[in-house]
Amino acid sequence: MSTERLLALLASRGQAQAQELAEALGVSQPTVSRLIQAAGDRICRMGRTRATRYARTRALPGLGTSLPVHRIDEAGTCTLAGHLHLLSAGRHWYSETDSLFEGLPPFASDMRPQGYVGRMFSAKYPELALPARITHWNDDDCLIALARRGEDCVGHLILGEESLDRWFRRDTVSVHPSDYPAWALRSDTEQVGSSAGGEHPKFLTYSEGRHVLVKFASHDAGEVARRWRDLLVCESLALDVIRRAGLDAASARWFDEGNYRFLEVERFDRVGARGRRGMLSLDALDNEYIGAAGRGAHWTSLAPRLLERRFIQAEDARRLRWLDVFGQLIANSDRHFGNVSFLETGPQRFRLAPAYDMLPMTFAPSVTTVVERPFEPSPPTAATLDVWADAALHASTFWTRAAGEAALSEDFRALARRCRDSVDALRERLGG
Predict the structure, then answer these.
(1) 158 by DSSP, 3-state: which?
(2) What percent of the chain has pLDDT over 70?
(3) Nearest to 67 by CA among 47, 40, 96
(4) Which of the residue ranges 14-23, 271-280, 348-357, 388-397 would you say has the lowest mean pLDDT?
């Protein structure tokens, strides 16, 4: 009896217990145990109880069949969390939680390079020989990137020894806001900072004692640049209104420097110079545990499903529905599942992270022109009735503040007045 027969059997079955393997091969369990030992890292042992299962592994060049996963806490202390084992057919086993995933684990999906910042990743690290476009990457490409150049991804985990070594060698260098124009210029041709989602021009850095995400728009003439400058101010206003409503929102400020307007948003997955917090996007949670995306689902419809699974508490479910209503009433058409996240409080337990990326994206320009799109505030539904009136009140406050904000163009202030009137008319019709 050879190990090759055992490996072929595991490859076809995906996973199996020792007794099942013995019966299928027609041998004793001690023989199976010897074959498993002889196979070495070509077989992954999943679990440590009588229900232990075995699976065929796969290997990545230079990385082997498993990757250590380290956790950085809020004090900046590093500890080994577990190992991510690479299995056949693109599956993964994470030892810390004894979890089997058909694709990438949720935390790895969130950590992958993405958006505007991630699009230059392959060009910055040609030695990794990854596809030029991150949209063409498969899961193994993502793991190679995370294990070898993933020292500064979102959240608090680091995959692989090489990325961990790079994190230990990494110095946290403070960048003054007066240097932001130079960073903005660089970001058009190279990756500046770590991975972050979203296609709006941005970079990530450490400034004045905080890790920040910095969006920017030029002061060039023309309606497109002017509209983006308006929207950066609106994002700052919206986050402030959310905080005043009693919900957590990312700390943000806008300012003009050089030929740019910047929006500086403090990262909530970072603490001080080297500390970190664990987080997971709604997109990652849905992909792994719910599977509602692509079927007309939205934040409000997922709130009770997250509550049913005890991922979140009732108050956070209410706040998620509030944010959904508020977003609609301030014309935020970009309320996808990547634009809301959760901070980890325990194994598969979360609390709603501070709000971010909340702005009237209905009025975002196209590449070449400003397109005037209609805005129609939606009335409450049975699922939002308990939060609608308060969210509508604060949406009206947002539009009022935007209408009076001198930094906004006159065209946008006029647009804000019309939007406020639409929201207030709906509030009056509904008695509040």
Answers:
(1) strand
(2) 96
(3) 96
(4) 14-23
Task: Please state the domain extents for the chain.
Answer: 3-56, 66-169, 172-432
- Quickly state the pLDDT bin for 189 (edges 50, 70, 90): low
Question: Residues with Cβ < 8 Å from 45, sequence gap 6 or more?
Answer: 36, 52, 53, 54
Residue 406 near residue 254, CB atoms below 8 Å: no
Contact partners, residue 271, CB within 8 Å, separation at least 6 = 74, 75, 76, 277
pLDDT exceeds cutoff 60 at 198: no
Q: Which CATH class is domain 3-56?
A: mainly alpha
Write the DSSP symbol of residue 339: G
Query: What residues contact 88, with CB distance under 8 A and at least 6 apart?
Result: 10, 11, 14, 55, 56, 57, 58
> What pLDDT score does 186 carry?
84
Q: What is the pTM (predicted TM-score) of this model?
A: 0.91
Question: Cα–Cα distance between 288 and 401 in angstroms, integer?
Answer: 40
Which residues are known to be catalytic? 334
